[in-house]
Design goal:
334 residues; alpha/beta; Rossmann fold; Alpha-Beta Plaits; 2 domains; six-stranded mixed β-sheet; four-stranded antiparallel β-sheet; 29% strand
């Protein structure tokens, strides 16, 4: 189980940087439904935060409150020190927002659209051209500036949406599912763009895609059913969960007999078949006590039992393990 230090509703920025986003006891009700339930967290200047949870967990609702799109039912949220409910204009002046469905005018040229958005955001005409050029350059849109948006690939359309959010070089960037629907190459490109913002901008990246967080973010919040279940760096969350040695064992032999044999090895806490490889060969996930290395005893027992041992590989917990354990724990509690 994740230790209490990594679980709950509040945490200070891991880097010790000045706080740029501060959420305190935030609640959002839709009728009797608590879409967001009394959550608290902070994000330091220059940090990239991964807001991770299944569909319907409350991620988008939290994003909408932070970006002044919808009011909270209770609690407070501050962007750069500005209260989003009482000082929304000041808060919006320092943040950029890319919703899940990018707000694009499909029949406009890329640069015309960005100039229009700069005007909507009330940047003065003297600065508008420079602001648009900077956003296009950062998002790799210079070569397609005279293309009609609807004729661009989905990856490039997402870049246009990101460029819209980056107009004026905002201090805070809120991105809701920025890579949904993209192909692997496009996902890698958008991830690299976001990762390059670390230290220069404070970013909240909302997603239900686990690799998105582990490959891009410095800090993670796991939210489920409107509540924060765990938060910290990916490394700290994994360390908090690692109360066992995890070994992946590849063995040729009858599954039931192999599992029974492995379960009798001293220190083994659990064994489960991970996947079949063909015939009677399978990969087993073995959890053992954290003290020592269980592999020599496992090898001796398997070979001594007359089974063919192909591989013993030390593994460990991942962000996916943490996420699945938290979600399954919630389902059991329900």
């Amino acid at each position: 189980m994740v230790e209490p230090a990594a679980v709950g509703n509040s945490a200070v920025p891991e880097t010790g940087a000045p706080v740029m986003i501060e959420v305190s006891n935030l609640t959002k009700l839709y009728g009797l439904t608590r879409a967001v339930d009394n959550i608290s967290f902070t994000v330091g200047k220059g940090e990239i935060l991964g807001f991770l949870g299944p569909n319907g967990a409350g991620k988008t609702t939290t994003m909408r409150v932070l970006t002044c799109y919808t009011p909270a039912s209770a609690g407070t949220a501050r962007i750069g020190g500005y209260d989003v409910s009482r000082q929304s204009e000041q808060a919006r002046s320092i943040l950029g927002y890319l919703p899940e469905n990018a707000p694009l005018y499909q029949d406009m040229l890329v640069d015309d659209y960005l100039r229009f958005m700069a005007e909507v955001k009330r940047y003065p005409g003297s600065r508008r051209r420079a602001i648009v050029e900077e956003a296009m350059e950062e998002c790799g849109l210079t070569d397609v500036r005279k293309r009609i948006i609807r004729n661009l690939s989905k990856g490039y359309r997402q870049r246009v949406g990101l460029a819209q959010a980056l107009l004026g070089d905002p201090q805070v960037l809120v991105l809701d599912e920025p890579t949904v629907g993209l192909d692997p190459r496009q996902i890698a490109e958008i991830r690299q763009l976001i990762k390059g913002m670390a230290g220069r901008r404070t970013v909240i990246l909302s997603t239900h895609i686990l690799p998105e967080v582990s490959m891009t973010c410095q800090k993670v919040i796991i939210i489920n059913q409107g509540r924060i279940e765990a938060q910290g760096t990916p490394e700290s969350l994994v360390s908090a969960l690692e109360a066992a040695n995890v070994v992946m064992v590849t063995v040729d032999g009858p599954a039931a007999a192999v599992q029974e044999l492995i379960s009798r090895v001293p220190g083994v806490k659990s064994v489960a078949q991970e996947r079949m490889l063909g015939g009677s060969t399978a990969v087993y996930r073995v959890e053992a006590a954290p003290q020592g290395d269980p592999r020599p005893e496992l090898a001796q027992a398997i070979i001594g039992g007359g089974y063919r041992l192909f591989e013993l590989q030390s593994s460990g917990y991942s962000l996916e393990d943490i996420f699945l354990r938290i979600i399954s724990r919630q389902k059991e509690a329900a």
